[in-house]
Amino acid sequence: MDRSQKADAVAELNRTFNEVGVVVVTRNLGMTVKQSTDLRNKMRDAGASYKVSKNKLAKIAAEGTDYSVLTDLLTGPTALATSADPVAAAKIIAEFAKTNDKLEIVGGAMGTQLLDANGVKALATLPSLDELRAKIVGLIVAPATKLATITQAPAAQIARVLSAYAEKEAA
Fold first, then answer.
1. Phi, psi of 159 (to 5 degrees)
2. Alpha-carbon span 17 to 62, nearest angstrom
3. CA nearest 23: which of 101, 92, 107, 122?
4. Exposed, middle or buried by CB within 10 Å (0-12, 13-18, 19+), for 90?
5. Residue closest to 98 by CA, chosen among 46, 39, 41
6. 3-state SS assignment for residue 80
């Protein structure tokens, strides 16, 4: 990797650090190419990304961002999982690590808040931003649905009574 490629990698990582809501640091302990590809596909489907990065370049890119707290975690063969949704990357990584012992969660950060491995796993148990939005919409719509049901009930009862009288007269 020459100097210009390193500069481009640092600039891209710095831009990523300024845009994301969470960064999870993982350690690759010999995953196969297929396993890495499966993980990257799951991350992409969730709106997150998973990239192997040189630790020195990641440390340089993290300087001046909220994620400068991660520099102590960047040792050994590490990779960074990032997402704008603070839960998405942590959730996918935690689920993948349960079924694959070659991926170790080292820690992570939500802005300036440093998380250890257990903190990342706890973050993974929270509902995602989309799940929270769905719950809020459901709570907002529920009263309107109940109101519509209640206002239609008297009209339906009157219709049934009139139908019963009509059947009685016809017989």
1. -65, -40
2. 7
3. 107
4. buried
5. 39
6. strand
Element (H, E) at 130: helix 129-170
Question: What tokens were used for 66?
Answer: 């909220």
For the record, the structure tokens of 91 come out as 């959730």
Q: Which residue has the tokens 């257990």?
A: 118
Q: Over the stretch 95-111, which tens digit does the pLDDT of each residue have?
A: 999 988 889 999 999 98
Query: By C-alpha distance, which of 28, 157, 155 is closest to 165?
Result: 157
Is residue 40 within 8 Å of residue 107, measured between CB atoms?
no
7, two tokens:
């500069």
The secondary structure element, H or E, covering residue 79 is: strand 78-83
Residues comprising the chain, all counted: 171
Euclidean distance between the first and the last CA atom of the chain, given in angstroms as a whole number: 93
Return the structure tokens found at 140: 């907002």
Bin 64: left if φ > 0, else alpha if -120 < ψ < 50, else beta: left
Give 16-70 as a 3 state SS string: HHHHCCEEEEEEECCCCHHHHHHHHHHHHHCCEEEEECCHHHHHHHHCCCHHHHH
SS3 126: coil
Q: What is the pLDDT of residues 115-152, one digit of tens each?
A: 998 999 988 888 877 788 888 888 787 777 776 676 77
